[in-house]
């Protein structure tokens, strides 16, 4: 017999406009929080520029944020199993340094 969680799975339909469907590129992120919410800022920093442009801000509950991080980590694990380990920023810098 299936438990209640398995029986209540629902197909979610997601609607979006064409601009949103294209997505945006970010290369920098910042996270702040209070007792009741997390704020995730996604930014774009151009090379050699001292200012970053805020591209998106997501405000989320602690419970949803934790669930999102868990899902993100699971997807990173599956990605690395298929394509290999994603290098850390420091590893990228050390491999690009010419002696």
Give short descriptive properties of this protein.
99 residues; alpha+beta; 3-stranded antiparallel beta sheet; 3 strands; 23% strand
Produce the secondary structure layout:
Blueprint: H1 4-7, H2 18-22, E1 28-33, E2 38-45, E3 52-60, H3 62-83, H4 89-96
Antiparallel strand pairs: 1-2, 2-3
In short, what is this structure?
The chain has 99 residues and is an alpha+beta fold. The chain has helices at residues 4-7, 18-22, 62-83, 89-96; strands spanning 28-33, 38-45, 52-60.
**Computed structural class:** alpha+beta
Total DSSP helices? 4
- Give the overall form: extended
Report the strand count: 3
Q: Overall mean pLDDT score?
A: 88
Task: Report the radius of gyration as a whole number of Å.
Answer: 19 Å
Helical content stands at 25-40%
Low-confidence stretches: none
Succession of helices and strands: HHEEEHH
Span of the ends, CA to CA: 64 Å
Reported for the largest beta sheet, the result is: 3 strands, antiparallel
Describe the strand arrangement of the main beta sheet, using strand numbers: 1-2-3
Q: Percent of residues in beta strands?
A: 15-25%
Describe what you observe in this structure.
The chain is an alpha+beta fold and 99 residues long. The protein has a domain at 25-84. Helices cover 39% and strands 23% of the residues. The protein is built from 4 helices and 3 strands, in the order ααβββαα. The chain has helices at residues 4-7, 18-22, 62-83, 89-96, and strands spanning 28-33, 38-45, 52-60. Strands 1-2-3 form a 3-stranded antiparallel beta sheet.
């Amino acid at each position: 017999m299936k438990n209640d969680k398995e029986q209540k799975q629902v197909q979610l339909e997601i609607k979006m406009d064409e601009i949103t469907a294209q997505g945006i590129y970010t290369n920098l992120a910042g996270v702040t929080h209070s007792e009741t919410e997390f704020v995730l800022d996604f930014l774009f920093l151009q090379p050699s520029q001292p200012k970053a442009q805020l591209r998106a801000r997501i405000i989320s509950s602690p419970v949803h944020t934790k669930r999102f991080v868990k899902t993100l980590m699971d997807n990173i694990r599956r990605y690395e199993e298929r394509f290999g380990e994603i290098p850390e920023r420091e590893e990228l810098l050390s491999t690009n340094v010419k002696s």
